[in-house]
Amino acid sequence: MADRIAQIAGQLNYPKGLLSGQVAIITGAAQGIGAEIARLFANEGAKVVISDIDAAKSKEVADKINSGGGKALAVPGDLLKDEYIKELIKRAADFGQGKIHIIVNNAGFTWDGVIHKMTDKQWDTMIALHGTVPFKLVREAAPYFRIKDGEPRNIINISSTSGLHGNAGQINYSMAKAGVVGLSKTIAKEWGPSFGVRANTIAFGHIETRLTANKELGAFVEVDGQKVALGIPGQQKQAAGPVPYLDIPLRRPGTATEAASAVLAIASPLSSYISGQTISVTGGRNM
Question: 159: which of 136, 180, 197, 212 fits an S-S bond (Cβ 3.0–4.6 Å)?
Fold first, then answer.
């Protein structure tokens, strides 16, 4: 899909890339979908700001983009800390010589539990990371979006089919990701009329990342010293039946590159009249 977008861009006279000259903050960009978004954005001429709690991986992604001829800046830190959000916006604006054009609120993970066993810590962390953090980041960036300079401004908030349809064992994640839809629509309605800011939500289905890999592989994140295991138990996957991905019409999960390509498509001028929408990237699941 990325190659096809590049081909279309050339046909529409975007020789330097669909996002040439734009500055984009991408959260959760040190691996997985976020890293692919950063790579594709940089390929299309954007100056990308890599935001992630993992400093080493953030630097690795930025270095790879820069060594390939792109422009990237790693600004690692904890999005749950207000001081980091302020630093991120300031450094992004400095990197962009006073301008920021795109924010992709992608950072996040899951911390599952059934309703009657869900702890306050599990609930509060998911609501904060997936709901409050995107709001605070957008609020902090307001001076760079509420301007009239004729340049495009674009906010993309990442949701999930769990937010659109709910999911057993994910009441905290589902609640937060459902809220993201309202966040995007409100930004579109407030900042669209006077400033031309577009805001959209992209809801991913089953994408191959560490969040959907076998839990037994041992991936985890750490929250206040507590290890939170990531992934789906192998036994749960086996319980789905002998035909894999039967609930997905394309009969396969999506790749990180396919997910990132959808974000690029919405960020690009090819989607210049799309705002306030929720785009499902699911291989046809949940139709």
Answer: 180
Cβ proximity of 37 and 46 under 8 Å: no
Q: How many Å apart are CA 19 and CA 71, to the nearest integer?
A: 12
pLDDT of residue 250: 95
Sheet holding 278-281, edge to edge: 71-74, 47-51, 23-27, 102-105, 153-160, 197-204, 278-281
Q: Which residue in 193, 194, 157 sits closest to 177, CA to CA?
A: 157
Residue ranges in the chain modelled with pLDDT below 70: 1-13, 15, 213-214, 218, 234-235, 237-241
Task: Spell out the domains of the chain, with CATH numbers in brackets.
Answer: 2-212+256-281 (3.40.50.720)
Tokens of 63: 């270095």
Residue 104 CA to residue 27 CA, distance in Å, equals 6
**Distance set, CA 128 to CA 99, 124, 242 (Å):** 27, 6, 38
Centroid of chain to Cα 85: 16
Residues assigned a catalytic role: 173
Q: SS3 of 155, please? A: strand
pTM of the prediction? 0.91
* Number of Cα atoms under 13 Å in the Cβ half of residue 166: 4
Distances (CA, A) of 229 to 108, 152, 219, 238: 13, 39, 6, 19
Which residue's structure tokens are 């999911």?
167
CA 171, CA 118: separation in Å to the nearest integer?
Answer: 8
Q: Which two tokens stand for residue 79?
A: 């999005």
DSSP conformation letters of 172-192: HHHHHHHHHHHHHHHHHHHHH
Q: Report pLDDT for 5.
A: 57
Whole-number pLDDT of residue 233:
72
